[in-house]
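User: My instructor asked us to take a sequence, write out its structure as tokens, and then describe one feature of it. I'm not sure where to start. Here is the sequence I was given:
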Amino acid sequence: MELPIENEQEAAVTILFSAAMQQSGNISQQQIEHLSRAVVLCSRFRGSDLNEMTKKAIALQASHEPAEIIEYCSALITEEFRETLFAMVSEVVLLDGQINDKKTKIFALLALHLKITMERMKMILATYLIRNKWNVEVMD
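Assistant: Let's start with the prediction itself. The structure tokens for your sequence are:
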């Protein structure tokens, strides 16, 4: 399988959208705002066109399974950025401070393909679950 992903930045944004949309097939305004802020504030994306990457990422969600996207895009993520990306995904997906079977599966899949250890994955997830436990839900 070949996806039209050209670099690590596009791969990372595509993974972020894929994980965020996995829960319900769409993405909330609150998730979009969090995702956008995370990308804009990350120096790894400096000089990248977030709008173009977003369009490409969303288009891919309609034509490919999340597992395919994550497997393909994870191979483009450098070792030094893997844990950071996993944390970014955790922040966006766990905005409600809750975890369920769908979220658990996506985190397990992502950790596997990004080569994140089980211990590290649990630590990152626990951190965001605690951090977001009392977040106020913003209605779209």
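For the description part of your assignment, you could build on this observation: The first helix runs from residue 8 to 22. Try explaining in your own words what that tells you about the chain.
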